[in-house]
Amino acid sequence: MSTPEPSAPHPASAPLGAPDVDAIARLANALFSALPNGAVPEPGAALGSAPLFAVEPLLNAIPGTPPLTPSLKPNHNPGSASPIPTIGAARPSAPVFALDPKLAAEPPHPAAAPLDLTVPLEATPVALPSASAPAVQPAFARETDLAALPGRLGEVRSFVPPDVAGGGPFGANAAAAAAPLYFLADNPLARPTPVAAPSLAPREAFDLAGLAAQHRPEVHVLDLSGTRPFDAHLFKRDFPILQETVNGRPLVWLDNGATTQKPRCVIDRLVQFYTHENSNIHRAAHTLAARSTDAYEAARDKVRGFINAPSVKDIVFVRGATEAINLVAQAWGRRNVGEGDEIVVSHLEHHANIVPWQQLAAETGARLRVAPVDDHGQILLDEYEKLLGPKTRIVAFTQVSNALGTVTPVAEMTALAHRAGAKVLVDGAQGICHLPVDVQALDVDFYAFSGHKMFAPTGIGVLYGKADVLEAMPPWQGGGNMIADVTFEKTVFQGPPDRFEAGTGNIADAVGLGAAIDYLSRIGMANIAAHEHELLAYGTEQLLTVPGLKLIGTARDKAGILSFGLDGCRSEDVGKALDREGIAVRAGHHCAQPILRRFGLETTVRPSLALYNTHDDIDALVDALRRLQTGRGVKWG
User: Fold this and answer.
1) Both 112 and 24 in a single domain?
2) Which pairing describes strands 491-493 and 549-551: parallel, antiparallel, or unpaired?
3) Aminotransferase class V domain: which residues (predicted)?
4) Domain tally for the chain?
5) Do 206 and 375 touch, CB atoms closer than 8 A?
6) Which of 85, 154, 303, 380 is surrounded by the fewest CB atoms within 10 Å?
7) What CA–CA distance (Å, rounded) separates 478 from 468?
8) Which domain holds residue 62?
């Protein structure tokens, strides 16, 4: 059967929630055709040779298009030699222009934030200024402009906004974000009146002065043509649920560590799949099966590219990170771990990266060993290295702690484990949504993550495995799709990844995961990391002004988690009281009881950040906590 041509991109896949470019082009063409001769510059003319026209009237004329703010203008750069495309030939890779006489009279403004509705950041040339170049508003670097990122955000080079008062992508907080020191011990603006902290055992106490060394990402200053600065308010509009109200107040979603919300493009992609493509995959000779199979396998390739895996055969679709870890523990572990062998995990782990290894150890007679952490929540690498030896078969640890936000040194820990002859599994459930991930640079043997933590649907996740390791693993489950041939005497199994995908998989949600990857790729994971780190710094400063609040987890390398305890208050009560304010946080043990008990606690309150969170969200949280502490306006549960 011949495979049909791929269907045209759905409007929902347009960059960052932008409207259908073809529809814009048709309207633009009609408008320009009605204008007097000479009003429109010839195709190919330089941008500065004739007035450019505002695109808002065209966009707002298209049904279903979100309203645009006056700041959303086409590029205006008289010094540029960029050509104006032919109207009517617009496509997702070419900008569309319309008329705005006011722009011709406006002088170029170096701090303007032009927005190209169609050109992704990856297409933007980099032009780093010299030391004497005038300050301009920073736009975030492309992911490809960063140094290699072997698992530590601390190794990201160049992400600090220039000291532009009241400007930059961080608005009025740009200057504060660029200050040399911004945590409690070193920033007078963040130094609250001393208050009693939650009781901790002496060994658990930590020195807040250590926060001075907290990593901050920096920002490249780029040629702004064709790029947009990071605007979390703009991205928030892509998420329908963030327009909800809770208890009569606007929803503030700070429970991203539990699950992220879904952008319109992902929701629409699911609707498109069930409306036009729904079928089981691989095994039918009809059009819908071809469409469904193409969409499913295209999503696998998007995952491969997103984490820089060598081949689509290295990408196994599972229900989530938990299933991925269990798959490895059973399929790889039963064959390779025996009595007297050792399995190493860290004190930071989620239960999902503890329990499967405990079960394997109980089954096989192996021993589970635990790498300790210091009082900031950082893995003690010297102690970790001492645990590794000839009996070590596998090391399993998190990339980012879901309870503390600690970013572990994945590449370094992996190299040490490999030196001892052990395999490495990294739980990337909390890392994939915060950091750029390159599994080849990290050199891990397995990498597991869940789609719902990265703006994709629930019930879909990924296990990456090195080709030779997956090839040597037996199947975990038996059934359709994973067999090449069956007789009553024996079964011949497919190769990876089919061998590990028995039965009908979660086809639609895999396609939704592909749409989420498209969305994140247009923004750039390095850009998201920079935004979240600035927000993490701001949130840390502000939370430490709340009387009686103590942050739990102050690692040097940290992602968007802000766990805290509030003196004299139960975490659950804080969570309920914040919910009455429309603020969603997680309150409990976060399925990470060992690490919380390491700090003498059973529960914490855990706000967690994502690309759509803003300073306003942090301010709402901090204001509510202050009122909770003083008893003004908010009642305890």
Assistant:
1) yes
2) unpaired
3) 252-621
4) 2
5) yes
6) 380
7) 21
8) 19-117
Give the residue from 373, 316, 313, 302 showing the smallest Cα distance to 522. 302
Would 563 be classed as within a structural domain? yes
Domain endpoint, select from 117, 142, 174: 117
DSSP 423: E
Question: Which SS3 state, helix, strand or coil, does residue 298 take?
Answer: helix
Give bridge partners of residue 250 from the DSSP assignment.
245
Catalytic residue among 265, 433, 569, 591: 591
Report the alpha-carbon distance of residue 566 to residue 490 in Å, rounded: 61
**Does residue 152 come out as left (phi exceeding 0), alpha (psi in the -120 to 50 range) or beta?**
beta
Annotated catalytic residue 591: yes
Residue 188 pLDDT class (50, 70, 90 cuts) = very low
pLDDT at 70 over 70: no
Torsions phi, psi of 581, nearest 5? -95, 5
Torsion of CA 578, 520, 154, 540, to 10 degrees: -20
Q: In this predicted model, what pLDDT tens digit does every residue of 324-357 receive, in sequence order?
A: 999 999 999 999 999 999 999 999 999 999 999 9
pLDDT digits (tens, 9 = 90+) for 80-99: 333 323 333 333 333 322 33
Residue 324, H or E segment: helix 321-327
Enter the DSSP assignment of 62. Answer: S
**Coil, strand, or helix at residue 486?**
strand
Q: What is the pLDDT of residues 196-228, one digit of tens each?
A: 333 333 323 333 333 323 333 333 323 323 345
Q: What DSSP element (H or E) covers 439?
A: helix 439-442
DSSP 608: B
Work out whether the CA dihedral 474, 480, 484, 486 comes out positive or negative: positive
**Neighbour count for residue 288 (Cβ, 10 Å):** 14
Q: Tokens 């590029």 map to which residue?
A: 75
What is the rounded CA–CA span in Å between residue 97 and residue 560? 38
Establish if 138 belongs to a structural domain: no
Q: Is 430 helix (H, G, I), strand (E, B) or coil?
A: coil
Please, what's the largest Cα pairwise distance for the chain?
86
At position 243, the amino acid (one-letter code) is: Q
Residues 6+ apart with CB under 8 A from 460: 317, 318, 319, 320, 450, 451, 452, 506, 509, 510, 512, 513
In a domain, 205, yes or no: yes
Same domain, 71 and 166: no
Tell me the one-letter amino acid at 48: G
pTM of the model: 0.68
| Best CA proximity match to 214, nearest among 184, 241, 189, 237 | 184
- Inter-helix orientation angle 507-523/264-272, to 10°: 150
Count of H-run helices and E-run strands, the chain = 19, 17
| DSSP code of residue 278 | -
Averaged pLDDT for residues 529-546: 95
DSSP 277: I
- 404 and 555 in contact (C-beta within 8 Å)? yes
CA distance linking residue 288 with residue 328, whole number of Å = 33
Distance CA 366, CA 358 (A): 9
Is the pLDDT reported for residue 443 higher than 60? yes
Q: In angstroms, how far is CA 103 from the centroid of its own chain?
A: 36
Question: In which residue are the tokens 């001892």 written?
Answer: 420
Contact yes or no for 500/476 (Cβ under 8 A): yes
Q: What tokens appear for 412 in the block?
A: 């370094």
| Rounded to 5°, angle at Cα 254 from 12 and 302 | 35
**Helix, strand, coil: what percent of the chain each, to 5?**
35, 10, 50
- CB-based contacts of 38, cutoff 8 Å, min separation 6: none
